[in-house]
Amino acid sequence: MSEFLPFTKPYIDEDAIAAVGEVLRSGWITSGPRVQEFEQQLSAYFGGRPVRTFNSGTCTMEIALRIAGIGPGDEVITTPISWVATANVILAVGATPVFADIDPITRNIDLDQVAAAITPRTRAIIPVYLSGLPVNMDRLYDIAKRHNLRVVEDAAQAIGSTWRGKRIGSFGDLVSFSFQANKNLTTAEGGCLVMGNADEVLLAEKYRLQGVTRSGFDGMEVDVLGGKFNMTDISAAIGLNQLPQLDAITARRHTLARHYFTAFGADFEFQTGVQLPVADFENSNWHMFQIVLPETVMRAEFMAQMKARDIGCGVHYPPIHLFQLYRERGFHEGMFPVAESVGRRIVSLPLFPRMVEADVARVVAAVREVLAR
Ligand SMILES: *Cc1c(COP(=O)(O)O)cnc(C)c1O
Question: Which of 68, 128, 179, 366 would staple 309 via disulfide (CB 3.0–4.6 Å)?
Answer without folding.
Answer: 366
